[in-house]
Amino acid sequence: MKYATGMNYIRTEALPHMWCPGCGNGITVKAIACALENLELDPRKVVMVSGIGCWGKADDYFTCNALHTTHGRALAYASGVKSANPELTVVVLMGDGDGTTIGGNHLLHAARRNMDLTAVLVNNYNYGMTGGQASATTPHDAFTSTSVLGNPERSVDICDLATVAGANYVARETVTQGTRLSKRIQEGISNKGFSIIEVASPCTTLFGPRNKMRQPVDMFRWLKEKGVSETKFKKIENAAEQGYFKVGKFVEHDDPDFNTSYETMRSRLNQKEGK
Amino acid sequence: MSTTKLIQGNAAIAQAAFYAGARFYAGYPITPSSEIAQICASEMPKIGGVYMQMEDELASMGAIIGASLSGAKAFTATSGPGFSLMQENLGMGTMGEVPLVVVNVQRSGPSTGLATRPAQSDVMQLRWGRHGDQSVVALIPATVAECFELTVKAFNIAERYRTQVVIAPDEVVGHMRESYSIPEPGELEVIDRAKPTGDPKTYKPFDFTPGAVAPLAAYGSDYIFHVTSSMHGEDGFSCNTPENAANRVAQLHTKLEDNLDDVIMVKEFDTDGCEMLIVAYGVVTRAARTAAVKAREKGLKVGVLQLQTVWPFPEKAIVKAAANASRIIVPEMNYAGQIAGEVCKVVGDPSMVRPVNSYNGTIMFPDAIEKALH
Fold first, then answer.
1. Could you say which of A230, A262, B61, B218 is the most buried, measured as most Cβ atoms within 10 Å of its Cβ?
2. For residue A1, what pLDDT is reported?
């Protein structure tokens, strides 16, 4: 078997990338590139739609088409891109601020509509680009630049949210497992309808040091230790309270996506006019 | 053969969009523009297009930008509160030079205001509603026929100059019904955006030469391209040098400034040698023309200049029509005289300009304008 490098899908002239040492974004770029390579997708038929934030800059590193949009709205733009040309493979790059905080509403509705998009949502538990403020995924009591005494808010579980909203494919992996992450992204792209892969990733500059993880390696250890399979998660007493979170594939449906349903509706119109 | 039909302003806008080739609509229902969404929902499937009902107006703007970059002629329709929500993503349309048409059926504000009543109080928002330096084209129809014709023109301008065009009828023009014969295909000019033809490897989606408009590829074609809301170079990738930023911002403006004769549309009624000029737009044009006819019957030399294009502002047309005028009356349905202020700037002598304003959610009647003529 050929080993995917993803290099045909990465703009090497844009390297080295802009992210901090130890950041998980580079691993995620490679995971996406390898998924595209394994699926043998034509870069001309792929569009990366990104939001704003550290991960929102990721579209710069791919050789396919790109649309770098406004904060939180990437899914809305992507819905237009896809609906106007359903042939396209549309991958949506969002952070936790983008996808669940300012843009949470679009996540709900893209999942509910079952838009044939693959969202790769990198969750680094805070706003990295603007100085490490709390986001909707910052854990309760965690320290950020806007929760210096501990976060008084609760966090949202992105995968649970996408699941109840009706996504066809839902998975979470950490950047400590790059190959597995790439496999999930590949599965998500292959699955028609709304797919979301949450990528648990370290913010080594801002979130880690404020939360007793001074070195990047501390954050990788944290992700590796706390990200456990669903089976293991269930066996651990008070797992969530102890900071454990589930990784793996949670949902895999084949409900018809928006564009397919739209064509079904259109065919009803033709039947009506034909009689 | 075209047949004359009694047709609503909003319906004429929707039909004109189809005529111009629009095949994608994304929107969120809002009074008094909802008829446009409803017509698109039922007609788009018949003509090979797509209607998407989005979760809000931010999403509507995002979706039409995405669709336009996939090669579709795309539009949305809204009113005051929704238009406010669209501003950020409309700015993205400007930055990416994405051809778009947005209908803002103006209603009375502020805020939710009088949701079913007309106003012309968004005129400055049309021009300056977004942050950052912006160029925009805004057209305001006064009749159902103009709803149709200006909508076709709006798509043409959007496609030719890769710009955003807002059509802003007020509620009355949007809802009034008049008889109109929808033109046959080919009767009105329909322009499609220029597509790249050269080597895909050297394609640049932007051209910052003053006045230039680069050809625009579609996602999925042989031309891979990058569009971003951030400052960028002609290749579409981030570029933060001061020189590039200046060239980029200037070209967003010069592409329209160099083509004002194509973009600016006015109608002149008895303006030759007129001693008093009424500058009007939208539904108020109708009252202005009635007032002018009555005044001329009394021997006053009154002309009416109707601004169909309000942005870019028709400076030359105003100077020309006002050449012999000692007084310029600017009736409009907003408190501050949003267009009157612009007319003052153009003529340079504010004492010549007499604003007439109404802002109570009803249309302006001819008598209010007549008073200003005496």
1. B61
2. 59
Q: If you write DSSP's letter for every residue of B262-327 in order, what string do you get?
A: HH--EEEES-TT-SEEEEE-TTHHHHHHHHHHHHHHTT--EEEEEESEEES--HHHHHHHTTT-SE
What's the pLDDT score for residue A7? 95
Cβ atoms of B94 and B164 closer than 8 Å: yes
Whether B62 and chain A come into contact, CB under 8 Å, resolves to yes
**How distant is the Cα of A112 from the closest Cα of chain B, in angstroms?**
11
Question: Could you give the number of structural domains in chain B?
Answer: 2
Q: Which domain holds residue B309?
A: 265-373
In this predicted model, what pLDDT tens digit does every residue of A98-154 receive, in sequence order?
999 999 999 999 999 999 999 999 999 999 999 999 999 999 999 999 999 999 999
The answer to whether residue B226 sits within a structural domain is no
Please say whether the dihedral angle defined by the alpha carbons of residues B111, B113, B118 and B124, taken in this order, is positive or negative.
negative
pLDDT at B3 over 90: no
Instruction: Label residue A249 exposed, middle or buried (CB < 10 Å: 0-12, 13-18, 19+).
Output: middle
Whether A142 and chain B come into contact, CB under 8 Å, resolves to no
Cα separation, A92 vs A94, in Å, equals 6
Token reading at B76: 């949305």
| Residue B273 buriedness (CB in 10 A; 0-12 / 13-18 / 19+) | exposed
More confident residue, A275 or A240: A240
Higher pLDDT, B1 or A179: A179
Show which of B119, B146, B181 is a domain's final residue.
B181
B198 is a domain residue: no
On whether residue B279 sits in a domain, the answer given is yes
Any B CB within 8 A of A44 CB: yes
Residue B311 has pLDDT above 70, yes or no: yes
Domain boundary among B134, B157, B181: B181
Measure CB to CB from residue A84 to each of B72, B222, B229 and give the nearest one: B72
Are A51 and A72 in contact by the 8 Å Cβ rule? The answer is yes
pLDDT band at residue A270 under the 50/70/90 scheme: confident
Residue B191 domain-assigned? no
Query: What average pLDDT does range B4-23 have in this prediction?
Result: 98
Asked if residues B271 and B303 have their Cβ atoms less than 8 Å apart, the reply is: yes
Which CATH number is associated with domain A7-274? 3.40.50.970
Query: What span, in angstroms and rounded, lies between the C-alpha atoms of B374 and B367?
Result: 11
What CATH number did the domain enclosing B290 receive?
3.40.50.920
Of B67, B225, B226, the CB nearest to A84: B67
The mean of the pLDDT values for chain B is 97
pLDDT over 90 at B168, yes or no: yes
- What residue ranges do the domains of chain A occupy? 7-274
